[in-house]
Amino acid sequence: MRFFQLLLLLPIIYSPLCEAYDFKLALLHGDKDVFSYELSVLRLALAHAEGEHSLEVVPVLDANQARILDTLKNGKGTFNIFFSGFSKERERQLLQVDFPLSRGLLGYRVFIINKDNQNKMTAITSLEEMKHNISIGSGVGWPDTEIFKFNGFDVSEASYVNLWRMLNAKRFIAFNRGVNEAFVEIEQQQQVYENFVVDRSLMVIYPFDYFFYLSPRTPELRDVVMEGLENAFKSGAFVENFNTHPQIKLMLKQLQPHKRTVFNLENPLLSDRIKNIPKEIWYQID
Predict the structure, then answer these.
(1) In the structure, what pLDDT confidence band is assigned to residue 15 with cuts at 50, 70 and 90?
(2) Nearest to 109 by CA among 269, 251, 275
(3) Distance separating alpha carbons of residues 236 and 129, to the nearest angstrom
(4) How deeply is 1 buried, as exposed, middle or buried, from its count of CB atoms within 10 A (0-12, 13-18, 19+)?
(5) Which residues pair with 175 in a beta bridge?
(6) Rounded to whole angstroms, how far apart are CA atoms 25 and 38?
(7) Structural domains in the chain?
(8) How is residue 1 annotated by DSSP?
(9) How many C-beta atoms surround the C-beta of residue 144 within 10 A?
(10) In the predicted model, is pLDDT for residue 12 greater than 70?
């Protein structure tokens, strides 16, 4: 009789969502200040998933996103989760958590420029004019780079660190940044490059965001994160964190979208899975 009772307990004992997992997040550039909101989302997910899970941040200082994702896919790194901009290739090769971390704000793109180029940016009145007159700096392996190229922009590619140097050398005019990145980064970079400012006149928008990616070898970790995010959204905790996080609040205040000329770009990278994410999860600027 006791044997059959134990059998009934086995599904509970070995249910993956009841276990405790150690999450090791690869953090590009190792900058917790720039990515404090994204870190808060993962902590929120783990807190709302079943089981007691731990989180360790693994700074990655000397690799671009493509290399990090390849290491993650092979399961050979010191980390087991990473967040990155969506692409169909990443969706195919890795385990993707189908939940946009910043509710799509990463697709609201502004630009860091040399301040003496502000008049050139302000003079732009059409998308075609912008394509012909404003060269863009964007990272190696970034989906943003593909999107800007697809839409006809002149794009210079380099590593994140080198893009700042190239902007300073005026190798391109505008460094493409997410609105949830630009205002944090400019405070850091102005300590080195006093001439840098966030452009105040233009913004481009396309459907895009960060998503969590994990190795195909660890589906149980993906399930934990997805369960936690779904639970947090249903309870209202996710939206509450979004609305009250200092980085998001400051970013929306600084953005001043109604004072900008806004252009919508096509995103050729969207998959059916991304298109089917419930509309209420995505943020809309009033």
Answers:
(1) very low
(2) 251
(3) 42
(4) exposed
(5) 112, 137
(6) 11
(7) 19-104+208-244 (3.40.190.10), 108-205 (3.40.190.10)
(8) -
(9) 22
(10) no
CB neighbours of residue 231 within 10 Å:
17
Give the pLDDT confidence of 105-162 residue by residue, as tens digits.
888 999 999 999 999 999 999 999 999 999 999 999 888 899 999 999 999 999 999 9
Chain position carrying tokens 């991304």: 274
- Sheet order of strands, 22-28 included: 54-60, 22-28, 81-85, 210-214, 95-96
Burial of 174 (0-12, 13-18, 19+ CB in 10 A): buried
Tokens representing 166 are 């190239």
Tokens of 75: 């399961």
Residue type, 95: L
Contact between 151 and 265 (Cβ < 8 Å): yes
Alpha-carbon distance of 147 to 157, in angstroms, equals: 13
Q: Residue 13: which pLDDT band, with cuts at 50, 70 and 90?
A: very low
Beta bridge partners of 177: 110
Q: Which amino acid is at 150?
A: F
17 token code pair: 């969502």
pLDDT tens digit string along 238-255? 999 999 999 899 888 888
How far is the C-alpha of 239 from the C-alpha of 222, rounded, in Å? Answer: 21
Is pLDDT of 10 > 70?
no
Judge whether 48 and 55 are in contact, CB under 8 Å.
no
